[in-house]
Amino acid sequence: MEYYIKILGGGKEVGRSAIEVSTSTDSIILDYGVNFDPNDNPNLPLQEVPSKVRGFIVSHSHLDHVGALPLYQISGNYPVYGTRLTRLITELMLKDFLKLSGPKVPFEWTEVRKVMDNFRSVNYHEEFELSTFKIELGDAGHIPGSAMIKVKTEKGNIVYTGDTNVINTHLVKSAEVDFLRDANTLVIESTYGRFNHPERKVVEDEFFEAIKEVVEGGGTVLVPAFSLSRSQEILSVLSSRNFDYPVYYDGMVKEITELMIQNPEFINDYESLKKAYNYFKYVNGWNDRNKATKGEGVIVSSAGMLKGGPAVYYFKKISDNPKNAVFLVSYQAENTPGRRLLETGKFDEYSPMLKARFQIFDFSSHAGKNQLKEMIKSAKNLERVILVHGSPDSSSVLAEELKREIGVEVIIAENGQEIKL
């Protein structure tokens, strides 16, 4: 039997992931996400003939990995597999996505409901079958509940890492690198194929000292952060160090934090997250928002790139005071206010120069270049590496180094490309 991998999304567009594994008659799809253009219009992945698709396995609950799942539910009922926490958070993410982008996507609440009705939770290392394929999940170390996906075939094992990281953080443990050991074909992200990250403890120390310096000087620190995972990580950093000034959190952070607390087996430093939830202040309405900006303290709020959400309100309230600070903790995509601040010091072309203190801290949940290479080298029977989820320059640098160092076939994926195994 012949097996193929088709790239339905990924490669040239950072953040867009959908991988099809197929035979002549059956196919399964690993992730089915949505990316956004500079005008915030959703870009949907390519589609396979619905009659051939047997189901979906998702690595984690970020929209660039689950946002397009409702598409296939328009014409049928397709099973979706992932960890229990991924299932719970996916429901929140899809509902929020539809609320914000509903007129721009070709599905409605009915299809989102069908995704969740057809979503089957599986544990790490619990082998299950989907059509002719045998599947196993391993911990990806990216966000709570994230998984690497192993597809066992007659042509060898295919491992798709999804987004992955190999450091211990407050939220998650390192990815299970041994899970890659028996991979023959490895489909791996290349988001940071050009760069390495600083040591996480150093980043946390610098971040905490900078927070203290601003707050002890009577200022307010705004930390724009993604509602899923980055906000919880920042809150855990503060609670683990017994930060005794007011900390507020705003946006969808509360609901996601509650789901994580209800599923402690997915959380590395559970006590710090629970402490943050119990002792820090959830912003409940405009009175709380106004109060949060009045005195010294920290505000953790979505959105992480300042594209919208309560963080924009807070930014406008605190940005003209040099005693205050804006600390970015996430990747800032092109054409976002966060990127403009980094490049010009202004929120937009009509805004005054930022007067508050401004810094960015690398809290990335993606493996850096050397970490990706070590993961790849852990596979002892590797025949080919397929690089996805990376810009062309990141993928190219990583590909060249891999060819020199391990000598296997390296493919920089392109949308629509089909690879015969």
Indicate the overall shape.
Answer: globular
Tally of DSSP helical segments: 12
Rounded to an integer in angstroms, the radius of gyration calculated over CA atoms is 21 Å
Which sequence of strands runs across the widest sheet? 8-7-6-3-2-1-22
Portion in beta strands: 15-25%
- Structural class by SSE content: alpha/beta
Major sheet attributes: 7 strands, mixed
Number of E-state strands? 22
**Helical fraction:** 25-40%
**N- and C-termini, Cα separation:** 10 Å
- Give the low-confidence spans: none
**Overall average pLDDT:** 95
Features:
421 residues; alpha/beta; 7-stranded mixed beta sheet; 12 helices; 22 strands; hydrolase; MBL; RMMBL; MBL fold metallo-hydrolase
Summarize the structure.
By secondary structure, this protein is an alpha/beta fold. It has twelve helices and 22 strands.
Map the helices and strands.
Layout: E1 4-9, E2 18-22, E3 27-30, E4 35-36, E5 42-43, E6 53-57, H1 63-66, E7 80-82, H2 84-101, H3 109-117, E8 119-121, E9 128-130, E10 133-139, E11 147-153, E12 156-160, E13 185-189, H4 200-216, E14 220-224, H5 230-240, E15 247-250, H6 253-261, H7 270-279, E16 281-282, H8 286-292, E17 297-301, H9 310-318, E18 325-328, H10 337-344, E19 357-360, H11 369-377, E20 384-388, H12 392-405, E21 409-412, E22 418-420
Parallel strand pairs: 3-6, 6-7, 7-8, 12-13, 13-20, 14-17, 14-18, 15-16, 15-17, 18-19, 20-21
Antiparallel strand pairs: 1-2, 1-22, 2-3, 4-5, 9-10, 10-11, 11-12
Helix pairs in contact: 2-3, 2-6, 5-7, 6-7
